[in-house]
Amino acid sequence: MDIDTLYRLFLQSTGVTTDSRRCTAGSMFIALRGESFDGNAFAAQALRDGCAYAVVDNARYLPQGDARYILVDNCLQTLQRLARHHRRTLGTRIIGITGTNGKTTTKELMAAVLSTTYRLHYTQGNLNNSIGVPLTLLGLKPEHQLAVVEMGASHPGDIQELVDIAEPDDGLVTNVGRAHLQGFGSFEGVIRTKGELFDYLRAKGGATVFVHDDSPYLTEMAHGLTQLRYGTRPGLYVSGHPTGRSAFLAFEWQGEGETTAHPVQTHLIGDYNLPNALAALAVGRHFGVSPQAACQAIAAYQPRNHRSQLVQTADNTLIVDAYNANPTSMKAAIDNFARMEAPGKMLILGDMRELGADSHALHQEVIDHLEACGLTDVVLVGQEFAGTRHHFLSYPDATALVEDLRRQRPAGKTILIKGSNSLHLDTVAQALEEEK
User: 234: closest CA among 258, 205, 198?
Assistant: First the structure.
């Protein structure tokens, strides 16, 4: 079926789903394949559960005479082409965002700021890959005035693939760091891949990019583009600095040409979130959001999903940042924790995954950084940290640590919990939250 015909059917439907367990009445099911499943096998069930159409790419699952089935060559490519067609048809202005750290938090802050003034559509959760980006685009409605689309990457070419689908008009790269090195091959590979967003915008023309001025990598990547810079240096489009030493980020900012600074008290843990907040303010300022509305939106934002959440338990204060970790974000969290004024500081740090051949050296760098910061009450989780030179308490996995915590729980501590999501350090936080 050609894309124009398929698009007409999409417009008649109530939306697209790729999960046969989530079939709303009148929706279009697109059968995707994974390493351990074939969505074609669930097409019939999706139709029984209320879908109006089932898009399949295996003729073996296509019954004769049932017009609800649509056969295509490749369901993933069809999903992507359908999303791009929809995006082009609506013509909504799209801001693309990527980066090693902070892109989801920055996206959420941008959405909070822009939603004060615009009817906004934006990526939900972390739907930022080759499936999530098309699904985000297919959620666009004619009433939306702006959209923020998050794009993630773990291999060279990933961002190029996503910008070819989303065709953003403006862009922001939060930062570049040493993450997913197993997929990228090197730090240079990270830089090239994240830079694919700016490369696309440079070729497209007419774009504005928002650049973290404190990063020489980003300022170099943005060469030749119309730039609005944000950071700590005075006189930028948006500049700001932290104003407190509590767990929560407090800061002041002002726009270029302004003489009065705007104070903001946030619910974000750590000064390392300052660039994320300044990025959202720069985007908001460019699109005409008032400083007052922008400040209120950032002050009201509450992080979730174990992204720098502060949890007060009966015995301790927890700073839970167990969604993701790489050397850049780990060191930033350690630095911030060392500066914080808090009683009984304790760290529970889990392995950083997907660092490839550099993994051992990068984990050792974190250990050395801990010692340089003078932090001594440290618990390590995972085989990578276990293989480093250190004198800290170490556990092979989260399960072993949880067993010990249930026998002897710390009290009166401020505990930073950080590690890659696959370490399941959220179970450690849950154990510390349990009633005795």
Answer: 258
